[in-house]
Write a structure and sequence with these properties.
alpha+beta, Aminopeptidase, seven-stranded mixed β-sheet, globular, binds coenzyme A
Length: 169
């Protein structure tokens, strides 16, 4: 991604469902859910999700939800950035965008789960906690034994309290 790229962050609509699914497939890392799941997400959890357009084309997305029994926690479900745009801060920018919108609506903490082998994701959320000057707690969420197929354990990253959004240049 060039520094002059035109980046738009916006709330996804149902019409974005196929693009989110395709980006999940192309990520080659994410557990890819059924196309139906992305359509449903774009209908029911759009307000806690974001799609990034780079020069008018889908370039990345974040899906999330506020935990029903703990609505002050924004749980990030999936993050993906197209390979051509990685390493330029786009994922961090999408996370900052969502967190900034939702701290105004009562969110104090962000959670996600990450497998131990996903360095990029671990660094992404580590960098997020440093930008927001928030504590990052790590614990086991779902052990490998809970997955019917071969799958590493999912570790819970809980970050907060989120107070003041970082300033961006
Ligand atoms: C994880 C992912 C979303 C990061 O997107 P990105 O836009 O490249 O991330 P950013 O540019 O905002 O970088 C965030 C941090 O990750 C680091 N990072 C980015 N790519 C990396 C890589 N391949 N290996 C190690 N660290 C990496 C950056 O250096 C930065 O850390 P720093 O601020 O300490 O330097 C992207 O690599 C991706 O789509 N991966 C496949 C899907 C996935 O694994 N999603 C996460 C699990 S839900």
């Amino acid at each position: 991604m060039t520094s002059s790229a035109d980046i738009t962050l916006r709330t996804p609509t149902v019409d974005d469902g196929p693009a989110l699914w395709q980006m999940a497939v192309d990520s080659a890392t994410l557990d890819v859910n059924a196309p139906y799941a992305y359509l449903l997400w774009c209908r029911d959890f759009a307000a806690t999700s974001v799609i990034a357009e780079v020069d008018g084309q889908p370039g990345g997305f974040v899906t999330g939800y506020r935990r029903p029994d703990q609505p002050q926690t924004l749980m990030i479900w999936q993050v993906a950035v197209n390979t051509a745009h990685r390493g330029a801060g786009l994922a961090g920018r999408m996370l900052d965008h969502l967190a900034t919108v939702h701290i105004g609506q009562g969110v104090t903490h962000l959670e996600t789960s990450i497998t131990p082998d996903n360095d990029a994701s671990r660094r992404l959320f580590g960098a997020f906690s440093r930008r927001w000057r928030a504590t990052l707690d790590c614990s086991e969420l779902f052990g490998a034994n809970l997955f019917p197929e071969s799958h590493l354990a999912e570790e819970l990253f809980r970050i907060g309290p989120l107070r003041v959004p970082p300033t961006r240049p």
